[in-house]
From TrEMBL:
<dbReference type="GO" id="GO:0046559">
    <property type="term" value="F:alpha-glucuronidase activity"/>
</dbReference>
<dbReference type="InterPro" id="IPR011100">
    <property type="entry name" value="Glyco_hydro_67_cat"/>
</dbReference>
<keyword id="KW-0858">Xylan degradation</keyword>
<protein>
    <recommendedName>
        <fullName>Xylan alpha-1,2-glucuronidase</fullName>
        <ecNumber>3.2.1.131</ecNumber>
    </recommendedName>
</protein>
<dbReference type="Pfam" id="PF07488">
    <property type="entry name" value="Glyco_hydro_67M"/>
</dbReference>
<feature type="active site" description="Proton donor">
    <location>
        <position position="295"/>
    </location>
</feature>
<keyword id="KW-0119">Carbohydrate metabolism</keyword>
<dbReference type="InterPro" id="IPR029018">
    <property type="entry name" value="Hex-like_dom2"/>
</dbReference>
<feature type="active site" description="Proton acceptor">
    <location>
        <position position="397"/>
    </location>
</feature>
<dbReference type="InterPro" id="IPR011099">
    <property type="entry name" value="Glyco_hydro_67_C"/>
</dbReference>
<dbReference type="GO" id="GO:0005576">
    <property type="term" value="C:extracellular region"/>
</dbReference>
<dbReference type="InterPro" id="IPR017853">
    <property type="entry name" value="GH"/>
</dbReference>
<keyword id="KW-0624">Polysaccharide degradation</keyword>
<dbReference type="InterPro" id="IPR011395">
    <property type="entry name" value="Glyco_hydro_67_aGlcAse"/>
</dbReference>
<keyword id="KW-0326">Glycosidase</keyword>
<feature type="active site" description="Proton acceptor">
    <location>
        <position position="369"/>
    </location>
</feature>
<dbReference type="GO" id="GO:0045493">
    <property type="term" value="P:xylan catabolic process"/>
</dbReference>
Length: 685
């Protein structure tokens, strides 16, 4: 059948295995829910639709209100909250404590020897998440016979950042236009908004920043607040809160004040009133995301104030309503000779402990900018008195847009598991993110989070590249559990999105897991960064003036000296790492050019000279894309023709562009190295 990718990983394909189908039919013949609410109704709708599509049978549904007892004898699947003693009695106290406000328990229980599946939670949203989990088990063909599942999110804020402009374009978006149709809002709630919310809820995403961090003040006007309110209302049953970016100069631009100085009483009052207005229209508003004093955006720096002054002023306005501020640490100046990698840390580290309790600092995974590989951002672990959240980029700004197949699950995993050593070995970034800054606070008040810059647009398949969907999916799963595995997430996604056939899932999972390193190889191997074409960031551009500051290639060698003889960025890391990175021999091979300037003829850990190694990585990357093409070709017939053919074309294009990258970079660097290509690297362009 034709498949255009619209249904993402929620395809609910018919289960062809007769035995499994029969077992499911029996196990899910009826559903009972206790009490109703928009969220419970969404769960029920999803279950009924999913079960029907997968096993061809609509379950009988009944609901119980108040304290009426559940008829365990006749019902197979029970969705109930744990405030019912009979339900809570099925679980241990540890289980009940763990799951908090968004978690859930799924358990097979026996009443009169008849097995029932119980989905239980403290909240309605927990029940919705649990329902999606049950559906996932079916989508991945797992037995429902003896379930005993405890799930809860390790991070509280799991947010998509949309860089959507109000005119419908998306900054760094490669999948069409913005999903939000401002012109027809608030009157028209497109089905697509609901499907967006379903997809997010299915992976536990619980927030969306609707507009670009390069913000327009218009989004804070009454006209737009009313439109935003309609979206917020539509998303609410799915547990998704809406946030907006706040342009720091809004008091001047909208309020006609003379200043936006965060310490000016009129400015303070303006934000207070604005926030009151926002909550009047959007009672469950989440808060602000702010890009300030960065890349030309206005900010507290314009008035000689600190980031803490700016963030705390907004936070004070939001606090009475439970709102938060996510303040970005992405700041740098293109000062001659300055190492951009150091600037975020230099500016924010001294402010540790100065931010109010409803402020989080949102830091990119690396100190520069969403590169295929960077050292990790040294701010993680270095701000023990500040709520820190991670910012990943799901949209592939530096990864070949929506043309290249790059599974980012591997990247998310790499950074989340990085050891910062800040509290000794084992202080992973995942731990830093999960840790409560105030250990005494209860689950409701802990402020932890992660954000991903969305890769979603109006393309029929949402993400442009069919495999781009995997990055949205993986982001949600890692947000739920930062120690999740990229491998099993890829497997789940493939099964739900394409087929459970192991002849497809195993080889393509392997292809996905290797794909990020392949892109690193043909774009920026060995710790190089920012060689993309200036401003556009598509294709190679190591020759641009802006790239030179990142690769430092000269007649002697290549790479940036970030040790004490250079910019000394190494000293921003914990001592154990600083000394590791200071020594070429102990620097991870994949970061050597990030930390060192290395002579062309110097032997590196590959066993070859710097120059030959560099060239070999570029050639290797191209070969690997050819291998990906071959593997994909051998999948013909295993999945629908539409997506098979589309990915075939995309991989062909990726192969061409990998060569473009290889040839551009190798030829460019050869001007400096003045060395011949290794003998096995003579393949013509
Ligand atoms: O990655 C860079 C992008 C800009 C972006 C900026 C940021 C929204 O090239 O387009 O602006 O980062 O993260 O603020």
């Amino acid at each position: 059948r034709a498949e255009n990718g619209y249904n993402l990983w929620l395809r609910y394909m018919p289960i062809e295995n007769g035995q499994l189908r029969q077992a499911y039919q029996h196990q899910l013949a009826s559903i009972v829910v206790c009490n109703q609410s928009p969220t419970i109704n969404a769960a029920l709708k999803e279950l009924i639709n999913g079960i029907n599509l997968m096993i061809g049978k609509v379950p009988n549904v009944s609901s119980i209100t108040g304290n009426a007892a559940i008829d365990f004898k006749t019902n197979r699947l029970v969705l109930a909250k744990l405030d019912q003693p009979a339900i809570a009695a099925q679980f241990s106290t540890v289980e009940l404590r763990q799951i908090g406000q968004e978690g859930y328990l799924i358990k097979t229980v026996r009443q009169n020897r008849v097995p029932q599946i119980l989905i239980a939670a403290n909240t309605d949203i927990g029940l919705l998440y649990g329902s999606f989990h049950l559906l996932k088990l079916m989508q991945t063909h797992q037995s429902l016979q003896a379930l005993n599942i405890q799930q809860w999110p390790r991070l509280k804020l799991r947010i998509l950042d949309h860089w959507d402009n109000l005119n419908g374009t998306v900054e760094r978006g490669y999948a069409g236009y913005s999903l939000w149709n401002w012109q027809t809002l608030p009157g028209i709630i497109q089905k697509r908004y609901i499907d967006y919310a379903r997809a997010n809820a299915s992976i536990g995403i619980n927030g969306a920043v609707l507009n670009n961090v390069n913000a327009s003040v218009k989004s804070l006007t009454k006209e737009y607040l009313i439109k935003t309110a309609a979206l917020a209302k539509a998303f609410k049953p799915y547990g998704i809160k809406v946030y907006l970016t706040a342009k720091f100069s809004a008091p001047k631009e909208l309020g006609h004040l003379k200043t936006a100085d965060p310490l000016d009483p009129a400015v303070i009052k303006w934000w207070k009133d604005k926030v009151a207005e926002i909550y009047h229209y959007i009672p469950n508003f989440g808060g602000f995301l702010v890009k300030a004093s960065s890349e030309g955006q206005p900010g507290p720096g314009d008035y000689g104030r600190t980031h803490a002054d700016g963030a705390n002023m907004m936070a004070a306005a939001l606090k009475p309503y439970g709102g938060i501020v996510m303040w970005r640490t992405f700041v740098y100046e293109n000062k001659k000779g300055a190492d951009r990698a150091k600037q975020g840390y230099d500016e924010f580290k001294p402010l540790d402990g100065k931010f109010d309790e409803n402020v989080l600092l949102q830091a990119k995974y690396g100190p520069i900018d969403f590169q295929p590989r960077e050292a990790f951002n040294p701010l993680f672990g270095a701000m023990p008195h500040t709520h820190m959240m991670m910012e990943f980029q799901i949209t592939q700004e530096y990864f070949g847009f929506a043309t290249h197949l790059v599974y980012l699950g591997s990247l998310f995993q790499e950074y989340l598991r990085k050891d910062t050593y800040q509290k000794g070995p084992g202080t992973t970034i995942a731990k830093v993110l999960e840790e409560r800054v105030n250990p005494g606070t209860d689950d409701n008040n802990r402020l932890t989070g992660i954000a991903g810059v969305a890769n979603i647009g109006t393309d029929v398949n949402w993400c442009g590249h069919p495999f781009g969907q995997a990055n949205w999916y993986a982001f949600g799963r890692f947000a739920w559990n930062p120690m999740a595995s990229a491998d099993s997430i890829a497997a789940d996604w493939l099964k739900m999105t394409f087929t459970n056939d192991p002849g497809f899932v195993n080889p393509i999972k392997k292809l996905m897991l290797g794909s990020r390193e392949v892109a690193v190889n043909y774009m920026t191997p060995l710790g190089l960064s920012h060689l993309m074409k200036f401003a556009l960031h598509y294709g190679p551009g190591p020759w641009s003036k802006s790239a030179e500051v990142y690769h430092h290639a000269d007649s002697v060698g290549i790479g940036l000296d970030r040790t004490v003889t250079g910019s000394d960025a190494v000293s921003q890391y914990a001592p154990a790492l600083a000394s590791k990175y200071s020594n070429l021999k102990t620097t991870p091979l994949n970061l050597i050019l990030w930390f060192h300037h290395i002579g062309w003829d110097q032997k590196i850990a590959t066993g070859e000279t710097m120059w030959n190694s560099l060239v070999h990585y570029y050639y290797q990357g191209v070969k690997q894309v050819a291998a990906m093409q071959q593997i994909w070709q051998s999948m013909k017939g295993k999945i629908d023709e539409d997506r098979f053919n589309y990915v075939t074309q995309l991989l062909k294009q990726q192969h061409l562009e990998a060569k473009w990258w290889r040839n551009g970079c190798v030829l460019y660097f050869q001007q400096y190295s003045k060395r011949p290509l290794p003998k096995d690297c003579k393949e013509p362009g």
